[in-house]
Write a structure and sequence with these properties.
This protein is mainly beta. It is built from ten helices and 33 strands. The strands form eight sheets. The chain has a six-stranded mixed β-sheet with strand order 9-8-15-14-11-10, with no helix packed on it. β19 and β20 form a beta hairpin.
Length: 559
């Protein structure tokens, strides 16, 4: 099917000259940078320069480098192993990023949060499972300790001087949250006997709360300590792929939560009320009465979309978790007290939340094709969800789901759902993952084609080559075009796009370059081209006229 720009713009929501990005969606939404004071101030000469700048997308590439479209350049802010203090180093496989300035009048100095999703033992702990018939018999506690250190997240102070962002080394804010950090449970009942949990892992995407703390989401948690599975309510343990449970007796139920981190002191808590599953992200919206709505999704084939509505201002504990029936447009309450089918299958609300996947299916929630990132459109207020793919069902390219809440109310219990199919060479992108709206409401998205499928003639992704970053303008002569603005190094994925409050920098993670490496002496990627030739995940700052033009587009473009 040929890609139709007008249909996609119609799906997104048509806008025009002078369209105002609604302030409440920027200030109240936890997935978009809040513009700095004076963001709209720009000289006529600069505005004319940006208006004259022509967008030219990249062609698909399999080059082992971070390639950028005309009008963009990048520099590395921090990479795996870099020191952030005398005692800590930057973790592995950086994913979600977000930035909070210290002063709303100064967008060039603040705290950067970065997720560290998982590790590749070959790089991190020098363990190569391919060498052994029974790898777990050769694992050591020392190896696992190294791996536990390199997951979680990093807080660093960064400053921009003369156009370059740098880490302020040894700043008192700089710290690591990792697989051994004690984290409290925000719930009245202990989880598997504990009110304090050791560590966080599988940290994929996240968000910012209205009270300016970080949210980090535990996604593929079962890879670290396994999972508890039930057959007629008889529990058994499914082993993990990393085998950490062979060295640390931490139950799987301690992981799979949304974690909130205080940037000032690094204290953290796990929000049980938001449910336990493979959280890709958590996007918050603050209502006028200061109650909070949280959207989150379970990134696995045939899993679900969730929404939490708090009953008290500023609470991620008191309230109700709902799951989406997208066929009938209903939010179904995961409430043990009011749902008879939940009462007959679970002993209390705590068990419902721990086994949220099972509870959702009992209520009739709609199975989705790997729901990943969730963003709120700052122009229309609609909610967009990337559905990356579902290969067993024949969906190899994915789609984008749109939720329109009844009367635009985020705490509504009914909604309208519609889907735009991605996929295919003619549509320009495949496997949408991270989404981001810039300060003019243009949509940015990254692709998530797996390393073992990219650039393979027997796979459906040859035309797309390496994973990429795209922008889809809402305005002007390029409205609706899918424009590739960055191409990742080999095996890598571009993740965690986040704009600085002045709209002049895009923070972006380059995750798992060289992931298909089997021999450190012959890696499949050498990006970022250090002397040792070892590929390293890193966070980069992308700047240039293209970034600034997109963030100012609504000031001078028309359809």
């Amino acid at each position: 099917m040929e890609y139709n720009r007008r249909k996609f713009i119609s799906f997104m929501g048509k806008v025009g000259l002078g369209t105002v990005v609604m302030p409440q969606f920027l200030v109240s939404c936890g997935s978009t940078a809040t513009p700095t004071n004076g963001f709209g101030n720009i000289s006529k000469e600069r505005l004319n320069t940006l208006k004259a700048f022509a967008l030219e997308g990249l062609v698909a590439s399999d080059t082992d480098d971070l390639l950028l479209a005309k009008g963009l350049n990048y520099h590395t802010i921090i990479k795996w192993g870099d020191k952030i203090s005398d005692t800590d180093t930057f973790g592995f496989n950086n994913d979600f990023t977000c930035f909070i300035p210290f002063d709303e009048n100064n967008p060039k100095d603040g705290l950067l949060w970065v997720n560290h999703e998982y590790v590749n033992p070959l790089f991190v702990s020098d363990f190569d499972a391919r060498k052994y018939e029974n790898p777990f018999e050769h694992r050591t506690k020392e190896q696992v300790d190294k791996e536990m250190y390199d997951v979680g997240g990093t807080i660093v102070r960064i400053k921009e001087e003369n156009g370059v962002w740098k880490v302020v080394e040894n700043d008192p804010h700089n710290r690591r949250i990792n697989g051994k950090t004690p984290i409290s449970v925000n719930w009245d009942s202990p989880i598997k006997g504990k009110s304090t949990i050791i560590g966080t892992n599988s940290n994929c995407s996240g968000g910012i709360t209205p009270w300016k703390t970080f949210l980090t989401c535990e996604e593929n948690y079962d890879g670290f300590f396994g999972e508890t599975e039930y057959d007629n309510n008889v529990a058994t343990h499914r082993p993990s792929s990393y085998g950490w449970e062979n060295f640390y007796d931490y139950p799987p139920e301690h992981y799979g939560w949304v974690v909130e981190v205080n940037p000032k002191d690094g204290t953290a808590q796990k929000h049980i009320a938001l449910g336990r599953f493979a959280h890709e992200c958590c996007t918050l919206y603050e209502l006028e009465d200061k109650r909070v709505v949280a959207y989150t999704a379970d990134d696995k084939n045939d899993e679900h979309l969730y929404k939490f509505i708090s009953s008290e201002p500023g609470s991620l504990k008191e309230g109700t978790l709902f799951v989406a029936d997208t066929i009938n447009g209903i939010w179904l309450a995961l409430d043990w007290e009011t749902q008879a089918v939940l009462k007959s299958n679970f002993k209390d609300q705590t068990e419902v939340l721990i086994r949220a996947r099972e509870a959702a299916k009992l209520l009739g929630a709609t199975a989705l094709n790997r729901p990943e990132d969730i963003e709120i459109d700052p122009i229309t207020g609609n909610i967009f969800i990337s559905l990356t793919n579902n290969k067993p069902k024949g969906d190899v390219h994915g789609s984008i789901l749109k939720i329109e809440e009844n009367n635009g109310a985020f705490d509504a219990l009914h909604f309208k759902a519609s889907t735009y199919l991605a996929g295919g060479e003619e549509k320009g992108f495949s496997c949408p993952d991270n989404l981001a709206f810039d300060l003019s409401g243009n949509l940015w998205l990254t692709s998530d084609m797996s390393g073992n499928s990219m650039n393979k003639k027997d796979k459906p992704y040859m035309a797309f080559k390496n994973n990429s970053l795209f922008v889809i303008p809402r305005l002007g002569e390029d409205a609706g075009k899918v424009i590739r603005v960055a191409s990742a190094p080999k095996d890598a994925e571009l993740t965690g796009p986040w704009f600085s409050p002045d709209g002049k920098t895009l923070f972006l993670s380059v995750q798992h370059p060289g992931e298909q490496t089997t021999d450190l002496k012959n890696p499949t990627s050498t990006w970022p081209f250090d002397e040792d030739g070892i590929p390293k995940p890193a966070v980069v700052a992308i700047t240039g006229d293209l970034i600034e033009k997109m963030n100012k587009l609504n000031q001078f473009e028309i359809i």
